[in-house]
Amino acid sequence: MNRNGEEEVAEKRRRRRREGVQVCLRGGCLAASATAIAVMLMATEKGVADIYGLPLPLNSSWSFSPSYQYVVGACTVTILYSLLHLCLGIYRLLTGSPITPSRSQAWLCFIFDQLFSYLIMSAGSAGIGVTNLNKTGIKHTPLPDFCKTLSYFCNHVALSLLLVLLSFIFLASSSLFNVLVLSTL
């Protein structure tokens, strides 16, 4: 085999390896977002809090908070986006065609990865604010922190938000990877 043929084979291997990383990042984002939704949807609990000696029944669910609804909505849209890209990437890997065949498609992937990264990060930030309020209570009122009474709910929400942030990391990494692809096209 001549030198030019070896370089061509090596370049093809590098390209396939990069495309495999792209597919893995999409799969990781899909898995993290789907798990975040599943955990959030299981976040419901009933309990009784004691405020000044009076029992106060508490009922908490993710659907009671607009911030948690935003998290579920953002994760749902991110799952659909990641699933579309994952299916397309696997199809192109199996057929041998490049995942990102043109510069304009690489730019589109970069822009949409950025868009969904910011969407999922803003949803996670909104959810973290409400979760922090649930854990610390409201300082200027006699309302206690609800997480002492509703620990199952708070733990599920916290785990879901951690997975949302992991999904953001996968999307941001995919966006960075698209920059690397753009630099080689």
UniProtKB/TrEMBL annotation:
Domain Casparian strip membrane protein: from-to ranges: 16-170
InterPro entries membership: CASP/CASPL (IPR006459), CASP_dom (IPR006702)
Coiled coil: none
Topological category with respect to the lipid bilayer: Multi-pass membrane protein
Keyword Calcium: no
Subcellular localization, as worded in the UniProt entry: Cell membrane
The UniProt record lists the keyword Cell membrane: yes
Keywords: Cell membrane, Membrane, Transmembrane, Transmembrane helix
Residue ranges of the TM segments: 23-43, 68-94, 106-130, 150-182
Major subcellular location class: membrane
Family, as annotated: Belongs to the Casparian strip membrane proteins (CASP) family.
Quaternary structure and interacting proteins, as annotated: Homodimer and heterodimers.
Name the record gives this protein: CASP-like protein
